[in-house]
Amino acid sequence: MSATASQGQAERAELEAVLNSGIFSRAPNLASFLKYVCDRYFDGDADGIKEYSIAVEALKRWADFDQKKDSIVRVEAHRLRKRLADYYQEAGREHAVKIEIPPGQYAPRFVYKDKWPLAAVTPSLAFEPVREAVEIAPSYKTVAETTSRARVAKRTLFARFVWISLAVFLILIGAAVIASNRRTAKQAREVWKGEHTASAGRVPHAGGLPRAAVH
């Protein structure tokens, strides 16, 4: 058996394994979508897989389907990509072949395990510690920055409180001084008026004798 024939059998077997895995038990549209595009691929007609053909032949839309008004194919393609990615992260992790629907196209791609990205083979060992280290480092920086900003804000608030309190105190002192000066000036005027009035009553008339009272 040629390598090409062997690969074809492996790819068909993988499609059957995915369809029978139960991941599409509540999503028949996704199963129909995947089976349709894979069958077209196996028939050598991957270039003929178009949005319109998927809508009409796989998703059973009417012949007047308008992809500008109906985004069903794009929505289901997005869901299918995510469902396949989740499957190969868990139940299908040890499979020799995996099926992908690359973004921006609908034709399937079969990737063999020796060409899988490291994260797809051993996600817990390859990427999670690195991701954890990358995520934890910024968190400490964020906490430090937040604490520093809080301290600066607290100091700024305290400084504002001190300056405002000092300004209020000076205003009160100034008002008290002004009020005291006004009272002192008023009392001085009253004393001066009293003394002037009293002295005016004691001024003698001509001849040195006080004027007789007129009856």
SSE topology:
Blueprint lengths: L2 H17 L8 H15 L8 H8 L13 H18 L7 E4 L8 E4 L5 H4 L1 H4 L1 H74 L14
Antiparallel strand pairs: 1-2
Helix pairs in contact: 1-2, 2-4
Structural features, described:
There is one protein chain. The protein has seven helices and two strands, in the order ααααββααα. The chain is mainly α and 215 residues long. The chain has two domains: 7-121; 128-200. A two-stranded antiparallel sheet has the order 1-2. A hairpin with an 8-residue loop joins strand 1 and strand 2 (109-112). Mean pLDDT is 79; it is low at 118-144.
Q: Count the helices. How many?
A: 7
| Shape call | rod-shaped
Structural class by secondary-structure content: mainly alpha
What would the average pLDDT be, to the nearest integer?
A: 79
